[in-house]
Write a structure and sequence with these properties.
17 helices, Rossmann fold, alpha/beta, 15 strands, five-stranded parallel beta sheet, single chain
Length: 451
């Protein structure tokens, strides 16, 4: 079942004793509606409402109380509400009626037995308006492009999926999983793209879908912009984001423009609210809590690596490679690893971070840091020998633990390492198709070190 992981999260939400109406966030076309429709099969009564439709939005605009609203909603869908039946109401494109957001609080207070999910591709544009927002009466979940495991599920590679989820996987599965991951790396995690590929296995047929997705994001800009000038700035920000993805950026003159730091910063943060990009800020410490340094230049990530590959013309490079570290100076696999680390995180506050040390004598940068069991685990995505991971060695020299991760195209093994100052640590070398399984392998890593 495609989008299995988000449905599992929805199932956990549904059985919570203190369940609140759920606001499902996510960029356009990440599969929110499809996932909720699949999840809804578990209910006796299900209403799908799209507030872009005049008939569906009218009851919310005339709201007086929850009971009459529910009866009106079932009436316009030619149905009768039965209070004794397990009921789910999905309010899609809720941003079309801003007052509907506040109505969610009345469901929580007066009709908690009805399960409510709200979503909207431009929902984030409402957060800055002067609205009566139901703080403390709703909860949030974020949906992102598909992970590698969801990709395997969608294309019915069930045996490969079983191996992916086996910890550790069998060595004989390495080459096939690597080939499948390269396909996933090339086309990305957008559901419509994966669905089309699963249907005919034809890369050429995907071009028009990539094009329509990117154009749709460009067209949405008008709904974010408050002026003609801001419209042009945000349009530029979208195009430049694909061109400068995987790089550390400065707001001033971003994308070789004449725009200032303030106006470009506002545009990029608007795109980040809409989950079209992420500004990944560095940390400089070695322990929790993770405190990003917002004075440092962030690294720019876009919504989906497949969209990036299409925009940048990198698909052919990926198709023929044996190691993704050789494509685009290793930036594509680094970007995809970040996308995978986020794909299985549904908390609205989930984010990525990398580590830096910037000194005149020597600088260092570790691709990612990952929180695990109270530790800040360094992650490098690099080919070559473990001894050449200089930045990782610098991090581990100061870290209060001995666990580090390297993702690459090779096999699974553990290396015992020593920093230049003599500190011993252990490096878990993982094939990069296992990024989505990192948490399981960290548990396995700990057990192996205790033997």
């Amino acid at each position: 079942m495609f989008k299995r992981s988000i449905i599992e999260e929805l199932e956990k939400w549904a059985v919570k004793k203190d369940r609140k109406p759920l606001v499902l966030r996510g960029a356009r076309q990440v599969g929110k509606t499809t996932a909720v429709n699949q999840f809804a099969k578990q209910y006796n009564q299900y209403l799908y409402l799209n507030l872009e439709l005049k008939e569906d939005k009218a009851p919310f605009e005339r709201f007086t109380n929850v009971q009459e609203l529910v009866e009106a909603l079932f009436f316009i869908k030619n149905n009768v509400f039965h209070k004794s039946r397990k009921t789910l109401i999905f309010i899609d494109e809720i941003q079309e009626v801003p007052e509907a957001l506040n109505i969610l609080r009345y469901f929580y207070e007066q009709a908690p037995e009805i399960h409510i999910i709200a979503a909207g591709s431009l929902l984030e544009t409402l957060f800055d308006r002067h609205l009566s927002y139901p703080v403390g009466r709703v909860e949030y979940m974020v949906m992102r492009p598909a992970s590698f495991s969801e990709f395997l599920d969608a294309i019915e590679e069930h045996v490969a999926l079983k191996q992916l989820k086996s910890t550790p996987f069998s060595a004989y599965a390495h080459d096939k999983l690597l080939r499948l991951y390269h396909t996933y790396a090339m086309i990305g995690g957008m559901p419509e793209i994966i669905k089309q590929y699963a249907k005919n296995r034809d890369f050429a047929s995907l071009a028009s879908i990539y094009e329509s997705l990117i154009v749709s994001y460009m067209d949405d800009v008008e709904k974010y912009a408050s002026s003609s000038k801001q419209l042009h700035i945000i349009r530029h920000a979208i195009k430049a984001s694909f061109a400068d993805a995987c790089k550390r950026i400065k707001f001033e003159g971003f994308g070789q423009s004449s725009y200032g730091s303030r106006e470009m910063g506002e545009a990029l943060r608007a795109l980040e609210k809409a989950l079209l990009i992420q500004l990944v800020y560095p940390v400089t410490g070695f322990t929790l809590p993770v405190i990003p340094n917002l004075r440092k230049s962030p690294r720019l990530h876009v919504l989906d690596t497949g969209l990036l590959n299409y925009f940048a013309g990198l698909q052919k490079d990926i198709l023929g490679t044996k190691d993704l570290n050789s494509v685009y100076n290793g930036s594509i696999i680094e970007h995809l690893a970040g996308q995978e680390l986020l794909a299985t995180q549904f908390n609205a506050l989930s984010s990525l971070h990398f580590w830096i040390r910037e000194k005149k004598t020597s600088s260092a940068e570790v691709d990612y840091v990952y929180i695990y069991d109270g530790k800040l685990i360094p992650i490098e995505i690099k080919s070559g020998s473990s001894g050449k991971l200089k930045s990782l060695h610098m991090f581990m020299d100061k870290a209060p633990h001995t666990m580090a991760i390297r993702f690459y195209a090779g096999d699974l093994h553990i290396t015992d390492c020593i920093t230049s100052s003599g500190k011993k640590f252990h490096l878990l070398n993982l094939p990069y198709f296992l990024v989505s399984q990192l948490k399981n392998y960290l548990k396995w890593f700990e057990l192996e070190l205790k033997k």
